[in-house]
Fold:
Amino acid sequence: MEVFYNSTRSTGTPVKASEAILKGLSDDGGLFVPDHIPALDKSLKELSAMNYQEVAYEVMKLYLTDFTEEELKNCINRAYDSKFDTEVIAPMVEAEGAYYLELFHGSTIAFKDMALSILPHLMITSARKNHIKNEIVILTATSGDTGKAALAGFAGVEGTRIIVFYPKNGVSPIQEKQMVTQKGDNTLVVGIHGNFDDAQTGVKMIFSDKELAKEMDEKGFQFSSANSINIGRLVPQICYYVYAYAQLLAEEKITDGEVINVVVPTGNFGNILAAFYAKNMGVPIGKLICASNDNKVLYDFFSTGTYDRNREFMLTTSPSMDILISSNLERLIYRIAGNDAAKNAELMAALSGQGKYEITDDMKAQLVDFYGNYANETETAEEIKRLYNNCGYVLDTHTSVASAVYQKYVAETGDNAKTVIASTASPFKFTRSVMNAIDAKYDAMSDFELVDELSKIANVKVPNAIEEIRTAPVLHDKQCDVDKMKDTVKGFLNM
Ligand SMILES: *Cc1c(COP(=O)(O)O)cnc(C)c1O
Structure:
């Protein structure tokens, strides 16, 4: 059955998957959502005999229904290849009885690679299918990890350009070095004088600038988005939850149909929404545990039903979760409002106007599958140290937030269901915070000394992504104020 995509903010004509991927964001500022969540048409048992690429095909074919089998398999095979440093693509590590699903084995060692290694292929396939002649300009706001993963995905891809805005003082030194050393004539990296929300708001404004879009079209360009608002990011993320369940089944860690819980360190709400979709496709997932850092706007939302971004923005050691406006939550809000675009649009208008909105009791009752909690900076550091001391496994700061929240969940509920914790970044990406958490003595070392030390104590080889930037020259040093983002874009396109 064909799946069409609707905007969360109006009831216009539904579009095909390829059109939704090309546009990124709907013209009315809404996000594209599938008109129904398709059910898996293979049993979990059948899926448990498949490799990652095969599972990915079985999941994605149900959403991207206007792609041919050949087109989709092509995209999958180009994405999930030797760019990943493990053949299984998404391995699971058991530590203290929980299963850490390592999603960081791609080229930039963060889970964003899972989607961003395939998005460029989905995008150029979509352009071809829709007879697009314009060059596609990818515009991205990043809290650190999306930027590099998108750059790595799109660099050198013919018919595309990519522009990345990041908060100049809001990413880790290694994240920044990864981005500013990016090669490729079609890439631009800009540090903005503001935080991630400023970057994201700026990008959304440029996207919805109709006059600019017209000017771009005349010059042979059109925008698209690599942010997690693009359905082409969300769909590939569903695959690894299906795969994780199938693998647990294959390894006889669970029985067929056994209910598991999933914990996700959350920022923009994309990753956990993918787990929610997997559940609704038929994967036996019980609780979706949403873990936040000190920017605990989602925890407050799940406990009170009020989403309120009016608060201080905190810089934490898990910068990819330093977010006060979780864009993908809009897809869930739309759904629990009964796919009511008008109701959702009203709430989103309140969010951009007063910075907050409140959902009805009826909507709140539909959130029973979610559990929200948060870990502060001390708890996050202690969890890294605790797990390392207990079993020698080293978590990155984001995964540690999830792991600490999981401990709270078990203590609070006594729920001992088997649990998959999404491990979203390699500890090598946040070496200083990770090493300081293990022992304060490491603070005196330089960033790359810490890398070598971490490799030693964790008994893990230094990932290629880190080896590469040790000596790489800085190729991008552009900075701009938030109100100059549009001019910066035009400059890069010679407009
Ligand atoms: C992006 C990111 C997150 C947050 O994921 P969302 O899909 O935005 O909720 C968590 N951890 C890491 C390491 C990330 O890069």
User: Anything to note?
Assistant: The chain is about 45% helix and 15% strand. The domain at 92-109+232-462 is CATH 3.40.50.1100 (Rossmann fold). Residues 110-112, 145, 228, 265-271, 320-321, 398, 424-425 surround pyridoxal-5'-phosphate (CB under 6 Å).
